[in-house]
Amino acid sequence: MSNLNPPLNDAGDELGDSESVSLFVESTWRRSSLAVQSGDYDWNDRFGTQTEPFKTVDNEAQTVIPKSIEIQTEPDLQKTIDLDPQLAEHVSNFLKKVCPFVESQILANVESRAFEDYQVSWEEERDTIGLLHTLYVEKYELNVQQGKQTSRSSNKNNNTSRNRDKYQGNGITDNDDDENTTIASHGADLSWNSSGSLIAVAYGRTDHSGWCVHRASVCIWNLMRRHVRTGNPDTELELPCCVPCIAFHPDQPNILAVGLFNGEIRLYDINNAEEPLIMSSTIEDCFHREPISSLSWIKNISERGYVLVSSAGDGKVLTWAPFENKLSHPVSGVTITPGNTAKNRFPFLGVTVSAHCGLSANTFNSYYVVGTECGTLVRCVQNLQQRKKTKEKRGDFVWSNDAFQLVSSGNPAAKLELIRHVEKHARLQALKAIECADVFASRPNPLHLYAPADSFVLESHSGPVYGASFSPFHKNLFLSCSTDSTLRLYNVSSPKPIISLEPSTSFLYHIEWSPIRPLVFGVCDSDGKLHLYDLHDNMLGPVVTIPASQNRHPVMSFRFNAQEPSLLATIDQSGHVGIWQLSSQFFTPQKGEQHLLEKLGSLP
After folding, report:
1. Which residues contact 285 (CB under 8 A, 6 or more apart)?
2. Of the ranges 67-81, 89-103, 352-366, which is most confident?
């Protein structure tokens, strides 16, 4: 640093400054830079840089010391017992003497039939049936109250009477002005998931006279929670229209199939909160165009998986492979048309229910029964043979085996016409190979694509059939119920019922076998009651009748729980779900009941 004598500042003179001193600081950076370039820089000179030197320290961090420790085990010590030679000989002689007798008794127990019908019941013994929970949707209850208040106010102001909903007390108005915003809160269907812990409830209207313009939902409760939120479901799936039926997957507890009023089928993953919708079908002539009446998951041993079978009011019964083609098209189907029974002269209207035999699904041909609006019952056979993934040259095109099998299983009278129709579409689209999707893209006539069901007509009910259920313990026995107030037990090989019972004078809406006991089943009616039968104790009437609806609303459906045998769920038309705990009688196997069921199945 040095002092210089720079020229005086004119401004300083004007202000009267006597002296002006300027300081000059030599740049250490420039000097250091020149020293570095010349190689004379001392790197240890702490004044050569304007920072403190960096310090580095090596330490071990984020590491563990591995150790091997025995836990929950005992040391394997080799122990030897030294027996007195005389004692050892005595033990050996004893074993030689008693072993033949013990072995003979073990073999006798293996061949004995004394405990053939005995099954251990791990449930607590109970003598009564109790209501555990009443599930409902709180916001629907508020809509009900608002609807009642609006209805009373309107009647008071106008002093006129209006037609009410066919089911009184639901609190939902059908005003044209607000119909597009109406939330359908009628109870429609139930389904337990495969683990028996979740109950799904479908909501919709049951009194449509035209297109459905309501919004609906499927609500799911977890009954294994410590505190069940009875008024608020754990999961709610909003739907654009009413939901007539639902069905959980038999093996995957998170997969739920939903059938809509507009004919659409949807699959949901309820574990995915952000995007639960996995896939959905479209609405076309070769699919469903009317309300889905039933959904069933059927085991297909040839495919080592499940197919989804749907029936609807349009008279079609379609089979889907959702995990194979994402519901883009069905893999097979049949139609229930008036031509099926021309000799019997039974008219066929919409399909109201279909029931499938889970036992016959273990073979390549599966039985199922279809009920219709006019009371007709039809037994059909479904072919579940394996679909090959090969392709074969047929004429000008390479047909996939699936596509050719689809058109070959159609109406025999229109097979050639159907093939020409599909090949014409392929030429217009410049296709060289024809897949199943191309068959449906050609928009064939549904009556050509789907053959009439190979059916056997059973003795009809005198009213619409709303319930049917195959026995899980006998492949030929099934139950049906109708609005004619009767339930019937049929053998699929005979047109006449084995048993016909009348539990009440009301409409019967749903019937189901117990998955635990071969001779137990239930049926629900429009008077708000659930009738439970045990043919082992009483062949003529129900052993218990439960008032399943507090205000005597129609009980639309109920479901036994295969995983939790003591639980049963009911839903009435007002949307209230009852979770019931059954008495031990209904899930404790009884001696000889399988033999009695076989005897019933052999009756003419």
Report:
1. 443, 446
2. 89-103
Each residue's pLDDT tens digit, 441-455: 999 999 899 988 777
Mean pLDDT of 187-213: 89
* The dihedral formed by the CA atoms of 34, 38, 39 and 41, expressed in degrees to the nearest 10: -30
CA within 13 Å, CB half, 305: 11
Q: Closest by alpha carbon to 454, among 278, 595, 335?
A: 335
Strands 397-400 and 433-434: parallel
Query: 372 near 351, Cβ under 8 Å?
Result: yes
Q: What is the DSSP string of 289-350?
A: -S-EEEEEEEEETTTTEEEEEEEETTSEEEEE-HHHHTTSS-SEEEE--GGGGTTTT-----
Phi–psi pair at 446, nearest 5 degrees: -60, -30
**What are residue 509's phi and psi, to 5 degrees?**
-110, -30
User: Average per-residue pLDDT in the chain?
Assistant: 80
Distance from C-alpha of 204 to C-alpha of 303, rounded to nearest angstrom: 34
How far is residue 44 from each of residues 41, 48, 49, 53, measured CA to CA in Å?
A: 9, 8, 10, 9
What digits encode the pLDDT tens for the residues 524-569?
Answer: 999 999 999 999 999 999 999 999 998 899 999 999 999 999 999 9
Annotate 501-537 with b (16+ C-beta within 10 A) or e (fewer).
bebbebbbbbbbbbbbbbbbbbbbbbbbbbbbbbbbe
b/e string for 352-369 if b means 16 or more Cβ within 10 A? bbbbbbbbbbeeeebbbb
Name 185's Cβ contacts closer than 8 Å, sequence gap at least 6: 137, 140, 143, 144, 170, 171, 172, 203, 574, 575
Top pLDDT among 75 and 465 is at 465
What is the distance in angstroms between the CA of the first residue and the CA of the last residue of the chain? 126
pLDDT tens, 81-112?
Answer: 677 888 888 888 899 899 999 998 898 888 87
